Amino acid sequence: MRLYIKELREEKGLTQKELADLCHVSFQTISKWENGINYPDITHIPRLSDIFGVSADVILGLVPFENKDERKRYDEVDFWADKRDVVKVWKNLYWNDDYFNFFIKDVLGFRKAVKVLDYGCGYGFLGMKMLPVLPKGSSYTGIELDSVQIEEAEGYFSKTEYAYRFICEDMYEYEPDEKYDLVVALFLISYLPEPEKLIRKMKASLKPGGMILLMDANMEVEQAGFYSGVESQDEGMRRPDMIPLWEYEYEQKERDYRMATKIPYMLKQEGFTGLQARISDQVVIYEPSDPKKKKLGEMLRFVYSKEDFVNEGAEYFLKRGYSRQQAEDMTAYFKRMHEYLDSKQSIAVKTSGVYFVYGRLK
Ligand SMILES: C[S@@+](CC[C@H](N)C(=O)[O-])C[C@H]1O[C@@H](n2cnc3c(N)ncnc32)[C@H](O)[C@@H]1O
Questions:
Q1: For residue 34, what are the contacts with CB-CB under 8 A and spacing of at least 6?
Q2: 311 pLDDT band (50/70/90 cuts)?
Q3: Residue minimizing CA distance to atom 12 of ligand 1
Q4: Is 171 within 8 Å of 119 (Cβ atoms)?
Q5: How many C-beta atoms lie closer than 10 Å to residue 17's C-beta?
Q6: Are strands 115-119 and 180-186 parallel, antiparallel or unpaired?
Q7: What is the 351 CA–ligand 1 centroid distance (Å)?
Q8: For residue 319, what pLDDT band results from cuts at 50, 70 and 90?
Q9: 34, 159, 165, 293: least surrounded by Cβ within 10 Å?
Q10: Does ligand 1 lie within 6 Å of residue 170's CB atom?
């Protein structure tokens, strides 16, 4: 058996001593692991996987070293830094003002001013949408680690009359100096390897009787119902199975593609009561002449081709748990999809279905 500890350590630029300190073992132990004299105890594997940012399979030599894939860190700000525009563009696919306004005004129906705290607030989008429909005198606080987005948010809100505050800090380090009536997060929890940590943080920021609201997706629901309307729909445009990719990400502790469906259960575990979940009802329809269809093409290109899918082609999927045939089918599908979305053909229909899950602190 051949472990890849030496290669991974060198790639990370760590000395044997530095790695030893991180693993709480002696550097002689590291040397023995690297030279195959001894093997690490199984309890060291998760830590090694965390340090190197690769799956246990790579450390154990179960996949060829050259085929290794970096574990995606969806929960780190660096991951989002080059996707600031994408996060905005995505909203065209899932955000529905009508539903949101109805939800805030008629479903939640606050009668008095509320103090809102938004975790991972980005450029303050939720505040922009919420404050106009909350009772007068309500205030919005956003917490976000990316200073570029905070600056943008400040720029927007400073021109309004609303009461707002932005805190540029790691949400895990943040200790709230006051308590809030409503604590929210939009498209954050499904990206976290330890979602319970966020729920506990949110809980600690709430007043007794306060409300938690998480808006997020179940990717099977979100991505269902794409219909392109081209004649070859049945063969050419039927999307190959995405589940192996999502399961791979789930197993690597990158993200949980079914997160939205699990939130009510997680809230119950944390003692929230009066649990409810709704689904935003938007189905997006693009006609051939609609400039939005082109926009959809651009969005999908962001998602599927920008850095990974098309540049690396089948290699990307091979590294992420697919067989050669599945990987080639997947790449061919995305290529056809791009061609179609760039063309003037027919109509495209896409489900969104964002879950709004909420409950109260006792
Ligand atoms: C998918 S984006 C959603 C942004 C915003 N809620 C929206 O929908 O427009 C996730 C955001 O969480 C932020 N984030 C991730 N980890 C964070 C952390 N530890 N502390 C604060 N913000 C974090 C990222 O910088 C990013 O802006």
A1: 3, 5, 6, 9, 16
A2: low
A3: 120
A4: yes
A5: 11
A6: parallel
A7: 24
A8: confident
A9: 159
A10: yes
Query: What is the best residue among 93, 146, 222, 254 to mutate for testing ligand 1's pocket, by most ligand atoms within 8 Å of CB?
Result: 146
Residue 187 Cβ inside 6 Å of ligand 1? The answer reads yes
Distance from the first to the final alpha carbon of the chain: 54
Domains and CATH numbers, the chain: 5-59 (1.10.260.40), 77-218+255-282+352-361 (3.40.50.150)
The helices-and-strands tally (H runs, E runs) of the chain is 18, 9
pLDDT value at position 296?
65
Non-local CB neighbours of 312 within 8 Å, separated by 6+ positions = none
Q: Is 172 in the pocket of ligand 1 (CB under 6 A)?
A: yes
Specify whether the CB–CB gap between 357 and 313 falls below 8 A: no
Backbone angles phi, psi at 63, to 5 degrees: -120, 145
Q: Is 146 in the pocket of ligand 1 (CB under 6 A)?
A: yes
| Ligand 1 probe mutation, 76, 77, 79, most atoms within 8 A of CB | 77
Question: Which has more pLDDT, 36 or 215?
Answer: 215
The pLDDT assigned to 354 comes to 94
Residues 6+ apart with CB under 8 A from 276: 357, 358, 359
Cα 155 to middle of ligand 1, angstroms: 18
| DSSP letter assigned to residue 110 | -
Q: Does 306 or 155 have the greater pLDDT score?
A: 155
pLDDT digits (tens, 9 = 90+) for 208-250: 999 999 999 998 888 787 776 655 555 556 677 888 889 888 8
Q: Do 31 and 19 meet the contact criterion of CB atoms below 8 Å apart?
A: no
β-pair type (355-360, 273-279): antiparallel
Write the CA distances from 20 to 31, 34, 197, integer angstroms. 9, 12, 28
The three-state secondary structure class of 140 is: strand
Residue 306: pLDDT over 50: no
- What's the pLDDT band for 265 if we cut at 50, 70, 90? very high
**With bands split at pLDDT 50, 70 and 90, how would you rate the model's confidence at 337?**
confident
